């Protein structure tokens, strides 16, 4: 029996952990003829179907999620007429609920694995091999004579320490995101999440993780993401896992090259966690925290019990320790109207996370909010990924405005390229939310969302918006200085946009005239040998090509240095380092 396992990932760089578990389980107990193929949902479906057809597999299994189910079913429909004897099996969170409707609508699908699949999938294939009755396979739904049969779920949860080793194959993970898990389950019961449908948390023994992590490093993996729903659910377990990450990376000299991403619960942070982080290599770990909302009535409805005001005190500590921090918000939760969401956004923005991820509620099959959608007035797209359209307190028009706001938030704040100019711009508006909302509506009015813009064009758009919306309360010069500073940090400019170099009132921008010649003199000043390590290794031409000098009339860094100042920008390996010129 030849078995093909197929993943249609959201992006090419992603990998599928679930299918690797299944593959190794099949090799151990069912068949030695197992193939794994990974594609992206952005690939041509005709090409995917063609390559799958040419494998001549007897059974084809697909890993299904909200982001790929439409593409998976399209591929199955294309293959079924030319592969009438092939058995198609679906598994994954997207097909584990409402399975009767799925199988009734898609007769070309032979079976669906419900929930955890490592044992059920093996049992299904063994039953097919032996010609046995499928009714004995736990956690299986199947089509039989145009009738859907749903078998009882498995009576026992799987032990993570008894699962096969998923990364046994020789693979090259360079440049890809690789997934690992050390827990299954979640201690919380958030009603928007499928983890609320399962009880308890199961743990992988730390030494089992060490073997996996060591293997991944040897295969070139440098970006590793834990799929644990709440990585810090058990503090001692989390410490042991992170100790292994640190020890293995340090022993190989990879601490500055590897980054592991963990989703944690902010309300489980404490002083002991902060003490632990103080001894951790900077940049090795990246944290994501689902705040979702700071409006307590909403948090109570969705059973996401937390107190943002209580744990946000740890955010500046982690930032000082150079731990990249992503904070998430969900728009469209019950009871949270425009004003409440504005407050949630401003609360989270105020702590200055490295990324503020503004997401929209997905009303997932099997979730508590799906079951109570009418009660809370949740209208959502009936097609995957079931994105919220409106709620009883948030109109569809408001949701569209938030979607536009999310787009400009990603372009400006989450890009990390406008740190100084955004800080100045926000002084001109009542709040951060109001700034991004007005910026997004200006983009909409101008029709700018209708095309892709190069990075430098974003500076032009921001300046045009500020000119249109500027307030007399803030110095126009301060904002333009900050925008020009960010522009220099972006890359070494060959030329500057007109709005940076033109005259303003009685003054003149200091990139022109005598100031420019002064800048060239400062760039050649031998004083840089004392502060820039690379100075001695460059000849004059290399130095001029890799540096730029600019003058700023305001304190762009907000470091308490008043008055004008010169800065040197050193560009190497896609990054700019800055040095203040000391007279």
Tags for this entry?
583 residues; alpha/beta; 7-stranded mixed β-sheet; 6-stranded parallel β-sheet; 20 strands; 37% helix; 17% strand; globular
Task: Describe this entry's structure for a reader.
With 583 residues, the protein is of the alpha/beta class. It is 37% helix and 17% strand. The protein has 21 helices and 20 strands. Helix 12 (338-349) links the parallel strand 14 and strand 15. Helix 2 (45-53) packs across helix 3 (69-79) and helix 14 packs across helix 16 (432-446). The longest helix is centred in the middle third of the chain and has 18 residues, at 235-252. The chain is globular. It starts with a strand and ends with a strand. Mean pLDDT is 93; it is low at 503-516.
């Amino acid at each position: 029996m030849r078995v093909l396992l197929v993943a249609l990932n959201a992006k090419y760089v992603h990998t599928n952990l679930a299918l690797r578990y299944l593959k190794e389980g099949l090799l151990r107990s069912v068949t030695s003829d197992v193939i794994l193929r990974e594609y992206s949902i952005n690939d041509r479906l005709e090409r995917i179907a063609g390559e799958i057809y040419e494998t001549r597999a007897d059974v084809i299994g697909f890993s299904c999620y909200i982001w790929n189910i439409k593409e998976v079913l399209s591929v199955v429909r294309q293959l079924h007429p030319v592969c009438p004897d092939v058995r198609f099996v679906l598994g994954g969170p997207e097909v584990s609920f409402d399975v009767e409707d799925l199988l009734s609508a898609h007769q070309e699908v032979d079976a669906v694995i419900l929930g955890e699949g490592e044992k059920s999938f093996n049992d299904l294939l063994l039953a097919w091999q032996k010609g046995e009755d499928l009714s004995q396979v736990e956690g299986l739904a199947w089509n039989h004579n145009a009738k859907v049969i749903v078998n009882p779920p498995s009576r026992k949860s799987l032990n993570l320490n008894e699962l096969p080793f998923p990364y046994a194959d020789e693979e090259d993970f360079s440049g890809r995101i690789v997934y690992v898990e050390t827990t299954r389950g979640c201690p919380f019961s958030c009603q928007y999440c499928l983890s609320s449908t399962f009880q308890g948390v199961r743990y992988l023994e730390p030494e089992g993780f060490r073997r996996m992590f060591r293997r991944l490093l040897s295969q070139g993996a440098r970006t590793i993401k834990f799929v644990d729903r709440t990585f810090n659910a058990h503090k001692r377990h989390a410490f042991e896992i992170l100790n292994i990450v640190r020890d293995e990376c340090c022993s190989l000299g990879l601490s500055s090259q590897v980054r592991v991403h963990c989703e944690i619960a902010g309300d489980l942070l404490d002083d002991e966690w902060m003490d632990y982080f103080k001894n951790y290599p900077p940049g090795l770990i990246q944290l994501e925290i689902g705040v979702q909302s700071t409006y307590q009535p909403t948090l109570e409805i969705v059973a996401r019990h937390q107190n943002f005001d209580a744990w946000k005190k740890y955010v500046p500590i982690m930032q000082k320790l150079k731990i990249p921090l992503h904070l998430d918000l969900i728009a469209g939760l019950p009871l949270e109207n425009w004003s409440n969401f504005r407050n949630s956004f401003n609360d989270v923005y105020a702590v200055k996370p490295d990324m503020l991820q503004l997401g929209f509620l997905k009303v997932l099959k099997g979730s508590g909010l799906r079951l109570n959608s009418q009660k809370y007035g949740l209208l959502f797209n009936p097609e995957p990924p079931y994105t919220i359209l409106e709620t009883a307190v948030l109109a569809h028009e408001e949701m569209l405005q938030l979607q536009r706001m999310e787009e400009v938030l990603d372009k400006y704040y989450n890009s990390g390229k406008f740190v100084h100019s955004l800080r100045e711009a926000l002084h001109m508006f009542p709040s951060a939310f109001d700034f991004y909302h007005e910026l997004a509506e200006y983009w909409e009015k101008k029709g700018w969302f209708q095309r892709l813009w190069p990075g430098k064009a974003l500076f032009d758009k921001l300046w045009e918006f500020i000119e249109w919306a500027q307030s007399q309360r803030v110095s126009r010069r301060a904002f333009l200085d900050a925008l020009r500073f960010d522009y220099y940090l972006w890359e070494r400019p060959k030329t500057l946009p007109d709005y940076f170099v033109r005259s303003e009132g009685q003054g003149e921008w200091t990139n022109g005239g005598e100031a420019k010649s002064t800048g060239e003199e400062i760039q050649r000043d031998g004083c840089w040998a004392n502060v820039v390590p690379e100075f001695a290794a460059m000849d004059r031409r290399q130095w001029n090509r890799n540096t730029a000098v600019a003058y700023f009339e305001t304190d762009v860094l907000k470091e308490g240095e008043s008055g004008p100042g010169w800065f040197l920008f050193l560009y190497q390996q896609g990054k700019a380092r800055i040095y203040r010129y000391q007279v």
